[in-house]
């Protein structure tokens, strides 16, 4: 039902967006109602307060690295990253809207988490390999080639462990480095890493 609702909204937005594709000025969510509606569709899954709803494998995007968000939308559009709803959503956005959407979500505050349970997990073995690209504090960083790595600290455990599994199994391959790294890490170690990162 939820998927049908999202596809219905996306179809309506596609029709509304057709005449506007010629104008490539960056839209302002505070004044552009159509663009605001599109951001609202994002929030149906990713959460109006930044916390994803109804599915623990949906990532937090509020406060995420802007460059990373832009790349993911590009990859969904081209099929380099495969997820049908995100492909549809990305295709409803003009290039200028994608840029503005990435900037909008990057500027939002990372959602507050409930207080961590006592005895948060210790840093697991192999976590330094994540720090090499995602920064010492796991907040993500722009790499030498200009592409940002995402924030991992505080991301949902289920999303992290499933993403690592997809890279390891070759189901997700829009980062060659991540595919190679995750293939070399056992499922148990990936789970320990995800549990630690989600606790930060």
What layout of secondary structure does this protein have?
Layout: H1 2-17, H2 33-46, H3 66-78, H4 84-92, H5 95-107, H6 128-134, H7 157-168, H8 176-183, H9 187-199
Helix pairs in contact: 1-2, 1-4, 3-4, 3-5, 7-8, 7-9
Account of the protein in words:
- This protein has 200 residues and is mainly alpha-helical.
- It is built from nine helices and no strands.
- It folds into two domains: 2-107, Cytochrome Bc1 Complex, Chain D, domain 2, CATH 1.10.760; 128-199, Cytochrome c-like domain (Cytochrome Bc1 Complex, Chain D, domain 2), CATH 1.10.760.10.
Number of helices: 9
Instruction: Classify the helix fraction into a percent range.
Output: 40-55%
- Give the rounded overall mean pLDDT: 86
- The name of the CATH superfamily of the largest domain reads Cytochrome c-like domain
The overall strand count is 0
Radius of gyration: 17 Å
Major sheet: size, sense and barrel closure?
none
Distance between the termini: 34 Å
CATH architectural category of the largest domain: Orthogonal Bundle
> Which sequence of SSEs, written as H and E, runs from N to C?
HHHHHHHHH
Short descriptors:
single chain, 200 residues, mainly alpha, Cytochrome Bc1 Complex, Chain D, domain 2, 9 helices, globular
In short:
The chain has 200 residues and is mostly helical. It has helices at residues 2-17, 33-46, 66-78, 84-92, 95-107, 128-134, 157-168, 176-183, 187-199.
């Amino acid at each position: 039902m939820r998927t049908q609702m999202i596809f219905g909204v996306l179809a309506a937005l596609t029709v509304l967006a057709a005449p506007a594709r010629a104008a490539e000025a960056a839209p302002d969510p505070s004044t552009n109602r159509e663009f605001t509606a599109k951001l609202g569709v994002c929030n149906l899954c990713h959460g109006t307060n930044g916390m994803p709803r109804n599915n623990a494998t949906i990532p937090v995007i509020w406060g995420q690295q802007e460059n990373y968000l832009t790349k993911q939308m590009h990859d969904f559009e081209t099929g380099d990253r495969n997820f049908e709803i995100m492909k549809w959503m990305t295709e409803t956005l003009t290039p200028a809207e994608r840029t503005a959407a990435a900037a909008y979500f990057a500027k939002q505050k990372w959602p507050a988490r409930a207080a961590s349970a006592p005895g948060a997990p210790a840093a697991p073995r192999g976590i330094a390999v994540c720090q090499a690209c995602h920064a010492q504090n796991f907040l993500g960083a722009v790499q030498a080639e200009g592409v940002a790595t995402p924030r991992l600290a505080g991301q949902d455990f289920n999303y992290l462990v499933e993403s690592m599994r997809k890279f390891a199994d070759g189901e997700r391959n829009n980062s060659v480095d991540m595919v190679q790294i995750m293939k070399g890490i056992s499922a148990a170690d990936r789970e320990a890493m995800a549990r630690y990162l989600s606790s930060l």
